[in-house]
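Before we proceed, please read the two lines closing this message. Report back on whether the structure tokens fit the sequence:
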Amino acid sequence: MHGARLNGFALLVTLGDRAQASRAAGGALASGAQQAGALRHPERAAAWLRREVMRRIGPVRPLAASDEVERRAALGLIGCRDAAVDGLAALSRVERGAYVAHAVEGFSGIDVEMICQRSAAATRHTLARARDRYLAASMRETAASDPADGPLRRRVRDAASHVMAVADGTAGGTGA
């Protein structure tokens, strides 16, 4: 029941390292099977499994490694675009786990606390920092990928110039 989503979580946290994600998710599922009686509530089980993934992942290689194209492709298969990958890459492993669990998967704060093994205050701080860093990095990628003077930007600038000219009375025509 949890396999595909757990693997997706692991892929996002490992920045697309399929082998590392598979090992972590597989190990968590095996541990979870041994705890099946205690993990009857689906949401608690999902949070517990993600905690196990986080525990098993360990250090994550940066995207600058030689397999970046392959890792981005793996993330692309689960719908993660380049700007999102860059946003996730700007985070620490714990920030990534917390952000993905909360913002992507919709886990509550108490579940994110369990996943990251942090107090409520530390979890709130981690999530706030992760959100800020994620947005800054993903926006940098988005801004860098837009041409500085693309057609939409030119149309908006031209329209704004026309409106300002009409307001100043310097535009041709009646101004009304």
